[in-house]
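Model it.
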Amino acid sequence: MKRKTFIKQLGYGSGATLFLPSALLVGGCSHTPVDRTALTEVDVPFLDDLGETIIPSTPTVPGAKATAIGEYIVLMYNDCMSQEDKAILVKGINELDRRSAQMFEKSFLDATPEQRLQLLEAVQTEAHTYQLEMEGEEAADAHYFQILKGLVLTGYFTSEIGMTQAREYLPVPGKYVACMPYAPKDKVWAL
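Modeled.
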């Protein structure tokens, strides 16, 4: 072997020795989605962040995470949902995790708020399109995002924070007012 060829091959070998570990390290940073078979307490942080993306905190009102929305969703999943809706919801949450890994190479929990919102806006558009396509079908299943968003909205607006801070609270029984003054900046009433 000639000296030039030897030095050239030695340079390639050295470069590969330096490059390969860094390439493997970068490749190891991508997220491998979890394949859930059911929702459990382990999923509460994921569901909390999902709820917070749907109903975020504002300077004056806490968001869905403050209402422990993840615990509410797991409770409703375990105690109140049909087997068909449970299967749709778990499959959908797995799909969200997979799509986050594909789009951002990280889990939904590790994604930035902007990335989470981008993902959920895309999924909501798909859910709306699905709903329009299935209109008139008698045996059409709900889209998982419709189920998930319904749980977040119900859980939030039936919580103490949703009833007393996100809405104006008027305990019942109360007096009857035929014409209540209402300005565009006012919150909706929770009766």
